[in-house]
Amino acid sequence: MSDIFISYARSSEPQARRIGEALRALGYGVWRDDEIPAHRAYADVIRERLAAAKAVVVVWSAEAVRSEWVQSEADRARAEHKLVQLTIDGAELPMPFDRLQCADMTGWDGAADQPGWRKVVESVVHLAGRPGPTPAPPAEAPAPPPPRLSVCVLPFANMSGEAEQEYFSDGIGEDIITDLSKVSALAVTARNTAFAYKGKSFDLRQVARELSVSHLLEGSVRKSGNRVRITAQLIDGASGNHLWAERYDRELTDIFALQDEISEAIVRALKLKLLPEEKKAIERRGTDNAEAYDLYLMARQHFSTGNDGDPRREEAIIRFCRRAVELDPAYGRAWALMGWAQMRLRFRLGRTDIDSWAAVEKALALEPELAEAHALKAEHLRYEGHTGEAAAEAELAMRLDPESHDANRTAGAILFSQGRYAEAIPLWEKASALMESSFSSSGMLVTCYTALGDAEGARRAARTTLARAEAVLAVDRGNGGALGYGVGALAVLGEGERARDWARRALLIDPDNMHMRYNLACGLCAHLRDTETALELLGPYFAAAGDIDDVAHPKVDPDLDAIRDDPRFKAMMAAAEARLKGP
User: Fold this and answer.
1) Mean pLDDT on 149-175
2) E strands of 79-205, at which residues?
3) DSSP for 170-234?
């Protein structure tokens, strides 16, 4: 294992590489996340390397400050007293890191006598010991490689005049990011980083500096009936000048050809050569049916922001996806998403008449390497009590696509069910970053950080959860799922009265949402110490429990530790367990 672990945001990769090379030149073993073997799960290697490192060098930048993944690695290093932090652009550090020593390496050119670099080396020596002998320099240093072109695809603005069309403009931007990522000569900013700018006013040149990208793509989408208008502009990050701009007015049925045109136009504007296999990969999509694609995007929006615990959410997802696969029976992603909704109806909402395995098998038969389908299979196996098989399937999903929201979320849920909260945190952090509208992933982080005694981590996750819950409630005031997670977030943030008001409102609006009741009980029990109200809320929850997981989860949930030994809690759990196991 290496002496030093380097944590950084993706846009800071050139600076992180230079820092790593300078530390290696001093004789240290250095590790960055570009060295993960193909057969290993990303999160597993990160945990292993973090634990083994003697020093963790965190490269703070404007993007890193917003990265929950970088903050999670920095939190771990701080807790283990091996944090070395530096800033490359003077970004304001998040709490509690703003209270710790941080070397200023803004504009560092590799000079060994720069004060910031000396400070970093002194800290590394203190933590990792004196370096080994400095390797002899090569007789002639190789010429540095030419700078790699890089682009950030900013979220496309929804110009339809209808908030419910947001799913479509987001989907267009996400697909262009995916397409451009297949061009080997182009570095593309990750989707979760780009979408941090959604809905904000910003100076394009400042964004380019913050993300260290050479170019930016911005645009807008107007969808009306069967027509779609897309505008797109490619901008030079240094000058702010337009290199290319175009407006397209097409039928919705042309949406895939239109996305291909935009991606290929960007490649031409940057004077890059698109290899034949890259062109083929860009044109390969889950479906060629525009209506099926639109339905899938709508279903995905319901999945991320709908009322968790309300069967109508799952039923709507199933309707959208069923129509999508009627239009294109080979649409694997739509089969997988339909399977998710069917699984939740069956295992979380007691609909034992639902067959959720058929969609799993269909998705895997159509796309054997689809990470979302393997994550769905893992969840299914977990609900059926096959924990070992579920963990293996989740690991496979992570290997297939470490950037999959579903894969990270499922792997985190499995670790959580085993009480392995510290290991679950990086996965929930990644899931939360990959789907910025989801309040459930950040809500689970509140529980994990609280269980580990990390009050600042819990508050940070609570702020994210509350902001997301409020955004959903602004559109759907009766969303019980958002209210349930919001109560816990408010309680963590010291807003006890507001948390109680939300709980009362939630029970008036959606009294039959048992998932919401459970989350209300967790928030009141863990953070407001209102154990009596928590027990009252849990009575109907256990009485309505439709699956053994409804009992298995409370057994390991640290939010309920304050009532775990209460005879009433034990009696409710025992009665539910006996009923579900049957004679």
Assistant:
1) 82
2) 83-87, 103-104, 149-153, 157-158, 186-188
3) HHHHHHHHHHHTT-TTEEE--HHHHGGGTT----HHHHHHHHT-SEEEEEEEEEETTEEEEEEEE
CB distance 544 to 514 below 8 Å:
yes
Contacts of 188 (CB under 8 A, 6+ apart): 150, 151, 152, 153, 177, 180, 181
**Residue 227 in tokens:** 């027509």
Residue 5: phi and psi, rounded to 5, are -105, 130
> With 0-12 CB in 10 A as exposed, 13-18 as middle and 19+ as buried, what is 163?
exposed
Angstrom distance (rounded) from CA 134 to CA 399: 36
Lowest mean pLDDT among 16-30, 154-168, 232-246, 331-345: 154-168
User: What is the spatial distance between Cα 43 and Cα 424, in angstroms, rounded to a whole number?
Assistant: 9
* 229/199 Cα distance (integer angstroms): 20
Report how far residue 504's alpha carbon sits from residue 267's, in angstroms, rounded to the nearest whole number. Answer: 55
Of 114, 146, 143, the C-alpha closest to 22 is 114
Q: Are 467 and 474 in contact (CB under 8 A)?
A: no
| Helices and strands per DSSP (H, E), number in the chain | 26, 11
Structure tokens at 125: 């020596």
The residues that bridge with 59 in the sheet, in sequence order, are 8, 86
Burial of 59 by CB count in 10 Å (0-12 exposed, 13-18 middle, 19+ buried)? buried
| Four-residue CA torsion sign, 296, 300, 306, 308 | positive
How does pLDDT run across 286-295, given as a tens digit for each residue?
788 888 988 9
